[in-house]
Amino acid sequence: MNRRLALIALALLALALFGSMYVVREGQAAIVLNLGKVVRTDIGPGLHFKWPLIESRLVFDRRLQVLSADPERYLTSEKKDVSVDFFAIGRIENLRDFYRATGGDESIATQRLAPIIKDALRNEINAHTLQEVVSGDRSKVLAAQLIAINQGASTLGVRISDIRIKRIDLPTGGEVIEQVYRRMRAQRQQVASQLRAEGQEEKQKIESEADRQQAVILAEAERDAQKLRGEGDAEAARIYGEAANRDPGFYAFQRSLEAYRKAFDGGSDVIVLERNDPFLQYMRNDR
């Protein structure tokens, strides 16, 4: 009987010992509840103990978490409709406030955080034009609202460190999307016109340079041709002079033949001269 009681006591002691120990892993934190009341909080990683049966523990992940929400439709300062898809990055900062606000249920925290972030996003987008929202730096869209968001999130024991916009969609088939397309076409046409103007300017520069080089080449060629013609005429005159000095009679005869050839080149030309004209001296029979 005593042995049985000892075994029962030993078993109860083991159960109490195991029920009083708990482990908090790295990146986690815990709170201890005594009959539902928070008695210890922000318990870090390691092996810890609690009173069995009357105390319980809750362990939470204190690493950064991503909060996603459904896309929301907003109006810009121009009263134009846009659909914004975003996500937030945050972590549990105060375990006591988190437990009191949500009962330790993270889904409740997500449901209560979403309206806070959406309202801040609405305020920021309402203050910007469509061009600023679509083409601007999206990381700056909510930078001014992050303080206000954390004021609301602090009641839940949560701190939001960053908010990012994943995508911004315009309503299809509406006037807004058509205006965006027109603006994009105008920008592309402006770039194309600028490229064409630059190309035309470059073309004119190339053509002007080519015309200048052509004029220089032609002038140099004409100069060289005149120089060669002058040298050729001088050489011909020298040769004619040497020939005339060697045989003046033959030279005179050759020049006369050349004159006859040029004078009667047409074949039907008529020249009226006196009988004793020197021009016909090589055509008379008395020579």
Kindly describe this structure.
This protein is α+β, with helices and mostly antiparallel strands. It has 4 domains: 2-61, no CATH class; 65-171, Tetrahydropterin Synthase, Chain A (2-Layer Sandwich); 176-246; 249-287, no CATH class. It is built from 7 helices and 9 strands. A hairpin with a 2-residue loop joins strand 2 and strand 3. The longest helix has 72 residues, at 175-246. The radius of gyration is 54 Å and the shape is rod-shaped. The termini are far apart.
Give me some keywords for this one.
single chain; 287 residues; alpha+beta; Tetrahydropterin Synthase, Chain A; 4 domains; four-stranded antiparallel sheet
Sequence-ordered SSE layout with sheet pairings:
Blueprint: H1 2-20, E1 21-24, E2 28-34, E3 37-43, E4 46-49, E5 55-61, E6 65-68, E7 72-75, E8 81-92, H2 95-102, H3 106-126, H4 130-135, H5 146-153, E9 158-169, H6 175-246, H7 248-263
Antiparallel strand pairs: 1-4, 2-3, 2-5, 6-8, 7-8, 8-9
Helix pairs in contact: 3-5, 6-7
